[in-house]
# Entry
Amino acid sequence: MTTEDPLRVALAQVRPGPDLDRNLDELAAMALQARRKSAQWLLLPEYAAMLHGSRQAMRAAADRADDVEAAVRSLARDLGMWVLLGSMVVPDGPQRMFNRSLLFDAEGRLAARYDKLHLFDATLPDGRTIRESSAYTAGDEAVAVDTPWGRVGLSICYDLRFPGLYRALALAGAQILVVPAAFARATGAAHWHALLRARAIENGAFVLAPATCGDSPGGRASYGHSLALGPWGDTLGELDDEPGCLVVPLDLAAVARVRAELPGLSHERAFSLRLAGPSPFVPSDGMPHDTTA
# Structure
């Protein structure tokens, strides 16, 4: 492939069930489908090998992390394509877990590892509460990795709501931002497209977001709608709410063109923040602050 040739990426959208081995078989079938469509890079979503509302079930899956990693590593090597394992669960002591993303090159070698920085602690519109921090340990390091097609910034799902992470990745040279996700159905319908498009536009970068879809055991409902966006914020391809494989070409030269037209990254400025006003106010911490200028 020359630098003028487009990169063909495949975004896999899956509905993980309770059987890890069956899930891995479905990932293998999806990888073969992507390769037959001439994809050079397969992106799998968050929790691609197992998604369950039960902490015990996910912790049991974490104990098989080596099996999951070996299976995906073999897919990359046997099919001769890069593979992003959007995330898998990995043990952190006897009770807790990491939500970890792995990127393999076309020879099955580990190119990068990233632990999810931001943990999803929220109350959904239907009143259901999710406390990811009760079972998972947050990462503490952002990760960008060089590939044959350019620099890639890694992230996972809830990270999407923290634009500073993506700005840092773009300022570090990332031209492609990946957002593998198991986005909740309730929040996905309201925010998924807007947040992804914002991350693409404000950073002049490709955004690739493979997602889980449908109902998984233990009350997990995923939005789906895997999405590929260009650096202008244009939609390159999108899936619905069913399993599938989206293959799109990326014109990698578009990043340089967009960043030259709208050089926002080079316009970043350090600044201080001054609170101005005629009287003190009481912020959320309950303590008055003098904000007079």
User: Anything to note?
Assistant: The two ends are 59 Å apart (CA to CA).
